[in-house]
């Protein structure tokens, strides 16, 4: 029973490029959450999605960031025109309903 | 505004003794609390949770206590083992409020078990 999958595990981008982070939830889970962890800090909520719907995006920066969870395929977190401050670990979590969230291994984004 | 606080950044405990990690929260809407364990370069691993209708939940060596009036919860690990060395995060959500299931995390406590 595979857990939450994230890819890539490491991503290096130059300033101004786009970053795409992918998350496949656990089997049977239809709720997906994205969190960001800056160095030496706790995880901060970004966005909560169900299939084809954004439920809560209160933690997403207003510009350059977007997320989707299509009917087929993984959830995607997209960061356009990356800046150095976007360097962080991005974690995806999934849950069956409003129950416990299980986390993936994360994508470590480095912006040069 | 830090709604979930873990005031001890680090804790060292002798192997075999009890480890007690503490967490305080300020938002009275929180009704579901979780503890996660995290190793470097990995995602958080779920340990144990507790609903606000309970004051204690136990799973093997891990017990979580909730004191709603004090807005305080703690995680007890007994006996502590070297493999327990990790960063522990407390998290909370307002699960009964639709669309508000997001987790609010504390800043973590680094637990080191001394052999």
What does this structure look like?
The complex is a heterodimer of chains A (112) and B (115). With 112 residues, chain A is mainly beta. Helices cover 0% and strands 50% of the residues of chain A. In chain A, the strands form 2 sheets. In chain A, strands 2, 4, 5, 6, 9, 10 and 11 form a 7-stranded mixed beta sheet that branches. In chain A, 36% of the residues are buried. The mean pLDDT of chain A is 93. Chain B is mainly β and 115 residues long. Helix content of chain B is 0%, strand content 52%. Chain B has strands at residues 4-5, 10-14, 19-25, 32-38, 45-51, 56-59, 62-67, 72-77, 86-93, 104-105, 109-114. In chain B, the strands form 2 sheets. In chain B, strands 2, 4, 5, 9, 10 and 11 form a 6-stranded mixed beta sheet that branches. Chain B has a 5-stranded antiparallel beta sheet with strand order 1-3-8-7-6, with no helix packed on it. The model of chain B has no long low-confidence stretch (mean pLDDT 94). The chains are: A mainly beta (112), B mainly beta (115). Chains A and B meet through strand 4, strand 5, strand 9 and strand 10 of A and strand 5 and strand 10 of B.
Give the tags.
heterodimer; A: 112 residues; mainly beta; 7-stranded mixed sheet; 4-stranded antiparallel sheet; 11 strands; 50% strand; globular; B: 115 residues; 6-stranded mixed sheet; 5-stranded antiparallel sheet; 0% helix
């Amino acid at each position: 029973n595979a857990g939450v999958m994230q890819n890539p595990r490491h991503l290096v981008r130059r300033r101004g490029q786009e970053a795409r982070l992918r998350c496949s939830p656990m089997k049977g889970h239809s709720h997906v959450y994205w969190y960001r962890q800056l160095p030496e800090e706790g995880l901060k909520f970004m966005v909560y999605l169900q299939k084809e719907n954004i439920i809560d995006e209160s933690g997403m920066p207003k510009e350059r960031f977007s997320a989707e969870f299509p009917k087929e395929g993984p959830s995607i977190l997209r960061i356009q025109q990356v800046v150095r401050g976007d360097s962080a670990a991005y974690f995806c979590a999934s849950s069956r309903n409003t129950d416990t969230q299980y986390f993936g291994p994360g994508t470590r984004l480095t912006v040069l | 505004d830090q709604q979930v606080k873990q005031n001890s950044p680090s804790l060292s405990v002798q192997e075999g003794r009890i480890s007690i990690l503490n967490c305080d929260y300020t938002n009275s809407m929180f009704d579901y609390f979780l503890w996660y364990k995290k190793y470097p370069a990995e995602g958080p691993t779920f340990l144990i949770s507790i609903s606000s209708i309970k004051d204690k939940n136990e799973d093997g060596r891990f017990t979580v206590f909730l004191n709603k009036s004090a807005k305080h919860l703690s995680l007890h690990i007994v006996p502590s083992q070297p493999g327990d060395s990790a960063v522990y995060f407390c998290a909370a959500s307002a699960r009964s409020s639709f669309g508000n299931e997001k987790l609010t995390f504390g800043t973590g406590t680094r637990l080191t078990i001394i052999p």
